[in-house]
Amino acid sequence: MENLEGNQHSGAPPVEGVGGGGTSYGWSDGGCQLPASFSGVIDPSRIPSSDLVHVWHMPSTENVGNQGIPQQFEHISLLAARNERESVQISLRQKVSWGGLGAVRIQCSDLCSSSGDRMVVGKSLTLRQVLPVLGVPDALTPLDLPVSQINLLPGETSSVWLSVNVPIEQPCGQYEGVICITAVASDTESSGKSLTKSQKYKLHHEINDCLDVVQTLQDKPHEEVVERLKVATSTLRRVLMSPTFSEFIACPEDLMDEDVHTNISIQLKLSVTVWDFTIPQTPSLPAVFGISETVIEDRFCLKHGSPDWYDALSRHFNWLLQYRISPFFCRWGDGMRIFAYTCPWPADHPKSDEYYSNPRLAAYAVPCVPSLLSDETAKNYFKKEIDILKSKAHWKKAYFYLWDEPLNADHFRSINDLSSELRLYAPDARVLTTYYRGPGNASDSQSSFEAFVKVPNYLRPHTQIFCTRR
User: Fold this and answer.
1) What would the pLDDT profile of 324-345 be if each residue is shown by its tens digit?
2) Burial class of residue 393, CB neighbours in 10 A (0-12, 13-18, 19+)
3) Does domain 2-191+251-278 have CATH number 3.10.450.50?
4) Hey, which end of the chain has fewer CB within 10 Å, N or C?
5) For the region Disordered, what residue ranges are annotated (predicted)?
């Protein structure tokens, strides 16, 4: 580690090139003294990775762009309660180029406490690569665990998003693990990358079965059985321990032995203190997020109401819940009228309680289109739905989202009319309205900001939850 900390930031950091690279970002060619052994072609397997790669970490609240400036190398220390997620960014940047498109291999261990408790990599600890969207670091694409590999472009900073998800039943204490970062040639990508994870798992399972069969041979002469077992066992174990199956090996610490022995990897220690209290499963401040059902249908080529359609909605629902977001699905009608619902099943369906009673759900949208209730059958059906939901303990989570961002006085009047109609069925209903401006054609003369400020006056008492983005 002395070698790492002595070389990580000596002088001004270069941005690219074997000689320290360009001056376009404020660093001069003379600001970096490289070892004489760096002349010629660089073999990352023979040089400490700390001489090739800048590694530092940044808070999850920071935007680290591709020109992020390297910071001091420090180990990571996080504090978290049970049932809490804490994240941090690990940023990487080439000090010098090796083979054009350099790559780094990232290996993670489980987080272990002195009492033997453990947070498992891949479940409690996850990694995602931060990728830009329209030039802004935004997308988080999952990385394989416990071993993954990413490419580093010369002169650009790349970041990895590390999240620690503390299970609700996790014992409190101090947990420690290691993240090994190793510079590798970009053409050393594991051959297993051509296989999907499910394919690798299937192959792994088949080889294990083969090993079991060979080890239980009984019909052959003793000498032949012994010899065949030696050959088969040696071959199969060598295959199972190859990088192709690294993510299925039970003890990820073993994967790091080679790096530890050669002292080439950068070893970034991760320490997590788990406090002796638990974050409630139900958020105290609801955060709702809408997903267009037509986007899901178009994106996954699904027919509305098909089994696959219900499955896709369920997957989106549960995926957002893990981030303490209460989702709803929606489609738009005329004039930005919106049909919003959290559960696609009717209130008397068993799935309904599964959705609405989920302790991670803080609020749910009740499907409602009062203006479409033109006949008694539809009105009776809607009344039945409301009566069922009102009889449940989760009714206190319910709200109605009737209109998306009204623009003029007619829109505001429509919201109030819809809300009044709704209260014939549910007098205690809570109506949510989103807005970013006041009515554009209001009769009284006022500025746009004055109209915006007065929106609650236009909507009360018909709206109880106001959501604005201005």
Assistant:
1) 999 999 998 777 788 999 999 9
2) exposed
3) no
4) C
5) 1-22
